[in-house]
Amino acid sequence: MKTITIVGTQWGDEGKGKLTDILAAEADLVVRYQGGNNAGHTIVFGGRKYALHLIPSGVFHPNTKNVLAPGMVIDPIALADEIKKLELAGVDTSNVVVSDRSHVVLAPHIALDEAIENARADKVGTTGKGIGPAYALKATRTGIRMVDFIDEAQFKTALIAHLSVVNPMLKAFGAQAQSAERIVRDTAEARKVIAKRVKNASVLINQALENKKRVLFEGAQGTMLCLDHGTYPYVTSSSPTAAGVPLGAGVPPQAIKTVLGITKAYTTRVGEGHLPTEIKGELADDIRTRGNEFGTTTGRPRRVGWLDAVVLKHAKRISGITHLAVMLLDVLRGVHPLTICVGYRLNGEIIDWIPASAQDLARCEPVTITMNGFDEPLEGIERFEDLPKNAQAYVNKVAELTGTKVAFVSVGPDRNQTLRLIDNLWEENNG
Ligand code: IMP
Fold this sequence. Notes:
Elements: E1 2-8, H1 16-24, E2 29-32, E3 41-45, E4 48-52, E5 65-68, E6 73-74, H2 76-88, E7 96-99, E8 103-104, H3 107-119, H4 131-139, H5 146-149, H6 152-172, H7 180-186, H8 188-195, E9 198-199, H9 201-210, E10 214-218, H10 244-250, E11 258-264, E12 267-269, E13 278-279, H11 282-290, E14 303-305, E15 307-308, H12 309-319, E16 323-327, E17 338-346, E18 349-351, H13 358-363, E19 365-371, H14 389-402, E20 405-410, E21 418-420
Parallel strand pairs: 1-10, 1-11, 2-5, 2-10, 5-7, 6-8, 7-9, 11-16, 15-17, 16-20
Antiparallel strand pairs: 3-4, 12-14, 13-14, 17-18, 17-19, 20-21
Helix pairs in contact: 2-8, 3-4, 3-6
Bound molecules: inosinic acid.
C-alpha cells in the first residue's frame, strides 16, 4: 500500500490545498474522507483560478481518480455546480467518483444550521453549509444517502420520512417547514449530473490499495476542529484526523502509513472559540493581510496567533503524524522576534496538552520562546539550505519541538514556491 494522509494540525486553512495539489499530481487516487463544502481552497491552474469545496484537486490530472468517500456529507446542488464550472472551463470531470454511502446535505439542513446558530447562546460560528445538521441526522438514522438520492422515486420516499422528523424541528425554531416536492424539483438537475458518478467507493479504494497504486487521503478542516479531539463545542461535526480515514473511506486502519501534518508557520482560526496564542493589533492585521487570511468559504477575516507547539503535539498524538509541511513561512518575514508557544501555564502548572474544558483553555497562559526573525525575501528560494539562517533555525525548531521530520516548506503562494526536504514521500514508511 502506498498512501499519504494529509491532515490539518491546527484550526483548518493550513494550506492543505496546495500540498494536496502537489501530491495529487503524483497520486492515482485522491480521496476526501470527511466534511463537505464547509471546506474550500483555491487552485490556480493553467492561468485560471478555481474554487474547490467538494472535489479533490486531483481533478486537474486526467489519470487521477477523485473520490468523495462515504464519510462525507455532500450538498448535491453545490457538487453539481462545481462540476459544471469545471466542465465549462474545459476540465474533464469524468474522473470524479461519489460514494453511494455518503450522506446528502439538503435545504432543510442549511435552514436548521442557521436556526440552531441563531438560537444558541454560545454561537459556534459555523460556515452555514448545513454540515452539523446533516451529520446529526445521520447519527439519528434519519439521514439520506447518495444511493437513495440518485433514484427520484426512492429519494421522494426517503425525503417524506426525513421531513416528518426535520420539519417539526424547523418549526420549533420558528423556521419554515420544507416541501418534499420542492426539494425533489430543486435537486433534479444535480441528480442528473451526479447519478452516473455514484459507486461503491470503498471497493474502488481498496482495489487501488491492493494494486499498489498511490492513494492520497485528503483531510479537510483541522485537528482542533475535530468533533472528538478538538476544542468542543467550537468544532466541526466530523473527524479531520488520520483516525477519520479508515471509517470515512472504508479502508483498513493499516492503510494509514505516512501522515503529513500541515501547519502554518503561525496559527489562524475562524469562528468562535479560544485561540491561546492570539495576537491582536497592528502585527495581527499585518500578518492577516500578507497571508491573505480571509475564509475561502465565508470570506470572514481569520484571527491570527503565534505558532503553538502544544497544538502541533496534540495533532501528532492523535494522528500519528510522521512528517510536517510548514506553510506560509514567507509571511513571517520582518517579524521580530518570532515567538513559539511551547507549553501552557494552567493553575500554576505547565502542561503540553489541550485541556478538555473550554473555560480551562481560555485560562491557559502560553509559555513562549523567542527566536530571531529574518528580513530577506524567500520568494525565489528553491532549496532549504538557501533559506536565511534564521528561517532555517525556525523550521528546525518546529521539527525539534514536535519530534517530526519536516518534508515541505512553503515560501509563497505558487506551486513552485514549495521546498521539498524529502524527495519521495511516497516511499517513506510505505515499504
Ligand atoms: P461547520 O463545519 O460549518 O459546522 O463549522 C464549525 C466550525 O468549524 C466553525 O468554527 C467553522 O468556522 C469551522 N470550519 C469549518 N470548516 C472549516 C474550514 O475548512 N476551515 C476553517 N474552519 C472551518
